[in-house]
Design goal:
alpha/beta, FAD/NAD(P)-binding domain, 7-stranded mixed beta sheet, 13 helices
Length: 534
């Protein structure tokens, strides 16, 4: 349901500028007062950038690209820019730009998705080039994951902090609290990135430090056009630039919902959170009792608090809009977090980290198939109902990589001798190879699953605060199989039908009526789209 909750699974790439949209009105009184959240010190702030996450989705550092339409500018910060190299001991094998040669696979973007695919394809014996302007810079997003997701991939040693349980507050009082006995962790971002980089180096991946401007196709090759006029051709091209949609093409209007969040890591005198639990969702609105205008806005377009307590004096707090269209403006999110902190009596000593997050959710998939292969955010892998992506993308990377290896191997098998260039040989072969990889990434069962998630997003877009509380009261009353599987994209389409029926049964009569009234248009649209998969 959300990512930093974005913290959880979003993979792709991308620091990029953000285009402004028309924000809805914010009460002057709420914005005029001096914020208690002014940074005193900053470690990795975000100067005019958006974090597109796993925390709900993983994003790495992408090629230069425009932000998705509908994403506002993050407020400017006076803090210094993030470091460009957090691995001074790593020396990447770099491309000789004067004589780049021809690679089997060229990848734009060194986020988790791009690096994971690069390592596996290169380890299979194929030449791979990764193009990214700053492959050694930090991933600025906080990534949160359910521990069982990373354990299944052998990444359970890449945690920074682990909480044995998570808490949800639907409303004030004990009846409004839900305890989730499912361990949750913050990813150790430097450790995860180091592991992926070192695996790439060991496998023989080549890096080129530059921005990708565009791609050209011809004679069975895809050539990435980089800054300074460098051209890097490959048999296949992979777009791992996150939500920028820089290289992949869309044949329909892209109209997603947006998950927006403003978060800070702060040093405090004290805080009221249990350091042994993370706060997954807090939908309470007691903190708005003295601001009726903001309370009314929150009642119509609700946001929740997400908190990771690291120690009695250090905590990550994030005000999150689960999904909205258009996105909730950052000043409003910051003002709501400001009000929460004041209500909780937290005295901020210093702000270590500041995040502005914007994640496109749902919407149409890229044109499938097409010559450029997508992965992660650029391939529509963000969970449309939750914003999660990192575990989904890292889990899908082997499938994508193995499909690429299979296509490249097919061409090599046709070669007369070992010196002959690997496949594809011509435009028809190249198009067929890319289509096969897209098919492996988005088989019919995955497309049907995504249509159900997209249907869920359309319902969530229409819920006010009370209806949202009712929804999650039923959601967290489901079996672990159903709510775990829904959040982690593990349920098949038919299992999702069972999930929906169970959710309906566990809902109150009022919530059932809401689901029927507000879900019917989306249900009709989902059935129409599903008919195309038969």
């Amino acid at each position: 349901m959300y990512t930093a909750p974005y913290l959880s699974s979003r993979v792709g790439a991308g620091s990029q500028s953000i285009r402004a949209i028309m924000p809805f009105k914010i009460a002057t009184s709420a914005m005029a007062r001096k914020s208690i959240l002014q940074p005193r010190s900053t470690i990795w702030p975000s100067p005019r950038l958006n974090n597109l996450r796993n925390t709900r989705s993983i994003t790495g550092n992408s090629t230069a690209a425009e932000a998705p339409p509908g994403v506002p500018d993050a407020p400017a910060t006076t803090a210094p820019p993030p470091p460009t190299n957090i691995f001074p001991d790593i020396t990447l094998p770099v491309l000789d730009s004067s004589n780049p040669g021809i690679f089997d696979l060229v990848i734009a973007g060194a986020g988790p998705a791009g690096l994971a695919v690069a390592e596996r394809v290169s380890a299979a014996g194929f030449s791979v080039a990764v193009i990214d302007p700053n492959p050694l810079c930090p991933w600025i997003n906080n990534y949160g994951v359910w521990c069982d997701e990373f354990e299944a991939m052998g990444l359970d040693d890449c945690y920074d902090v682990v909480w044995d349980k998570a808490i949800v507050h639907l409303d004030s009082g004990e009846k409004g609290m839900r305890m989730l006995n499912r361990p949750y962790a913050r990813v150790d971002r430097p450790k995860l990135k180091r592991r992926l980089l070192e695996r790439c180096m060991a496998a023989g991946v080549t890096f080129h430090l530059a921005k990708v401007d565009s791609v050209e196709h011809g004679n069975g090759k895809s050539t990435l056009l980089c800054e300074a006029g460098v051209r890097i051709p490959g048999s296949l091209a992979l777009d791992a630039t996150g939500h920028s949609r820089r290289l992949v093409q869309y044949d329909q209007k892209f109209d997603p919902g947006y998950q927006g969040a403003y978060g800070i890591t702060i040093e405090v005198e004290s805080h009221p959170f249990d350091v042994d639990s993370m706060l997954f969702m807090d939908w309470r609105d007691d903190h708005l009792a003295n601001d009726p205008e903001m309370k009314a806005r929150n009642a119509a377009l609700p946001t929740f608090l997400y908190a990771m307590p690291f120690s009695p004096t250090k905590v990550f707090l994030e005000e999150t809009s689960l999904v909205a269209r258009p996105i909730v403006p950052f000043p409003e999110l910051k003002a709501r977090l400001d009000a929460r902190i004041a209500h909780l009596g937290i005295k901020v000593k210093a702000i270590e980290d500041e995040e502005y997050c914007a994640i496109p959710m749902g919407g149409v998939l890229p044109q499938i198939p097409q010559r450029v292969i997508g992965v992660g955010g650029t391939a529509g892998m963000v969970h449309p109902s939750t914003g999660y992506m990192i575990a989904r993308v890292l889990g899908a990377a082997p499938t994508v990589a193995d499909a690429i290896v299979e296509q490249l191997s097919a061409g090599a098998d046709k070669a007369v001798n070992s010196e002959e260039e690997k496949a594809p040989k011509n435009e028809a072969d190249a198009a067929a190879a890319a289509a096969a990889v897209w098919g492996a990434m988005w088989p019919v069962q995955r497309i049907r699953q995504r249509e159900f998630f997209d249907f869920g997003m359309e319902v969530l877009l229409k819920l006010d605060l009370e209806e949202t509380r009712e929804f999650f009261s039923a959601f967290f009353s489901l079996s672990d199989f159903h709510w775990h599987g829904f959040l982690s994209s593990r349920l098949s389409f038919f299992e999702l039908i069972g999930f929906g029926l169970s959710l309906f049964v566990h809902s109150s009569n009022a919530a059932r009526l809401d689901l029927l009234q507000k879900g019917l248009p989306g249900l009709v649209r989902m059935l129409s789209r599903l008919a195309k998969t038969l």
